[in-house]
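Q: I'm writing a short explainer about Peptide/nickel transport system permease protein for a general audience and would like to include a description of its predicted shape. Could you first generate the structure from this sequence?
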Amino acid sequence: MSPGERGEDKAEHYVNPKGFDPKDVEILTREQERYYQAPQWKIIWWKFRKHKLAVLSAIILFFFYLCVPFAEIIAPYPVAKRNVDFLFAPPQAIHLFHEGKLVGPFVYGLNPSVDLENLKWVYETDTTKVQKIRFFCKGEPYKFWGLFPASFHVICPAKDGTLFIAGTDRLGRDQYSGLVYGARLSLTIGLVGVSISMVLGVLLGGLAGFFGGWIDSSIQRVIEIMRSLPELPLWMALSAALPITWSPVWIYFGLTVILGLLDWPGLARAVRSKLLSLREEEYAKAAALMGASPSRIIVKHLLPGFTSHLVASATLSVPAMILGETALSFLNLGLRRPAVSWGVLLNEAQNISVVTIYPWLMAPVIPIIIVVLAFNFMGDGLRDAADPYK
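A: Of course. Here's the predicted structure. Afterward I'll give you a sentence or two in plain language.
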């Protein structure tokens, strides 16, 4: 019995009225070829830019890292400039309108006085002193990178005026300028420390994963011992061992070496696990049968297979380095004046009574939180983009 005789409905046959367009197939084929023939880094970039939060984090980090080479130009004051008439000055609010008229970006002047009853500085806003902010101007002289005399700034206070966007500290040093200069050390110490960690992690993890045997066992025992030690006390002990007679430059490099030496075990284990699986692949065995040396097999054949994962892991390790330097400098075991980092600036806020009276001394916490979150979000985006199964 046919379907019609049984009373069943017949499925309608749909025909596209537009007909077949060979150009659509050609475009689709070209896009597929473009994807499958693209190098690995380009595929990762296509995936990464779809991660909006990671892209936004990368843009934020880009602007933060502009402070590294151009700190002197961005900051309105030299980092050691003391405004002796404005100790513990509060942040000056930026205004656009004065008495209903558009004046442009400006701040009101401050009238300092001492509260002898509560033993603190008191500042009254003087609305009669309208101090227009200058842009792309000549201001306090400085030495660019410590080499070239210059006086050009992106932002400057008014003539005979002040511009304390984030207040001042106990010696009248501008906090905002300190934050800009502090980014130079706090942000680069993470990159240098991760570079040291990457070299050690890839080298030792590669040896353990490729050769196995007693080499693998020895390296794994060292990793287990290092990971069993409490991290912060170990940082403190090694930092305290640095000679106090060292210059800030040597202290900086000493801290980067310490942070890099203590961070490699996690990366080494990741490299080992990858190499254990990749060394059994046919292309790795073929290279060995053709007489390639172990170093060539690791560098030319195995490492490129998970370089993207190494980059993502390194990106996620930078925040730990920044927080490590901040903690050590806050405890006065890391960088010290005249070197300036976010941890050194936070050292001014160790006294809780001072913080309650002058809360703007906690301003370095804000860029630390923003940078750490941005690195974490960007690292998550890179890790997802580098995952071949996503």
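A: For your explainer, you could say: Residues 175-211 form the longest helix (37 residues).
Q: Perfect, that's easy to follow.
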